[in-house]
Amino acid sequence: MINIMNIKTFLAKDSRIYYPRFLSKEWLLDLILQSEQYWIRRFMIALRKEEYYSYIKPSKFLKYYYQRRKNILGRKLGFFIPAGCFDEDLKIYHYGSIIINPNAKIGKHCTIHGNCCIGSKGSFPDTSPIIGDNVDIGQGAQILGGVTIANGVKIGAGSIVTKDILIEEAIVVGIPGRIIPSK
């Protein structure tokens, strides 16, 4: 028997995502209207359940079931986010092409907007980004190669980061990404 309480506890780690109570007025409206956030929530639930049944309480059948469900929703939304890349409390604001390399490691409380790519440069050896906690990745930003991003960094919309950002709470903009002084 599946321990439902453990799954709920695991899903509760994404505290910045609002889940309406089952059969509440909000839940019914959400189901009928099927807004952008409705589909992103469904994707996040499938992603977190795939992670749960892959790493916390291994079950091949449930892992593949939720992986398939996540992939179907991912095609609809334009997401390619493998299990195990993001730590707790991921917030996705928009659907649209979000591509994450399976070897990338992203910390807690990450915020990501649409049309982002976090991946390798395609060279040998294949290296992927390591991103700290509380990082905000803007619309259309790309983080490429084996770079390290410090905690609390804000990456501006359309930026391309190919070098390490080791200063915490930095603001990065431009192509190539450079740190601008904060006021």
Automatic annotation (TrEMBL):
<dbReference type="InterPro" id="IPR018357">
    <property type="entry name" value="Hexapep_transf_CS"/>
</dbReference>
<keyword id="KW-0677">Repeat</keyword>
<dbReference type="Pfam" id="PF00132">
    <property type="entry name" value="Hexapep"/>
</dbReference>
<keyword id="KW-0808">Transferase</keyword>
<keyword id="KW-0012">Acyltransferase</keyword>
<comment type="similarity">
    <text>Belongs to the transferase hexapeptide repeat family.</text>
</comment>
<dbReference type="InterPro" id="IPR001451">
    <property type="entry name" value="Hexapep"/>
</dbReference>
<dbReference type="InterPro" id="IPR045304">
    <property type="entry name" value="LbH_SAT"/>
</dbReference>
<protein>
    <submittedName>
        <fullName>Serine acetyltransferase</fullName>
    </submittedName>
</protein>
<dbReference type="InterPro" id="IPR011004">
    <property type="entry name" value="Trimer_LpxA-like_sf"/>
</dbReference>
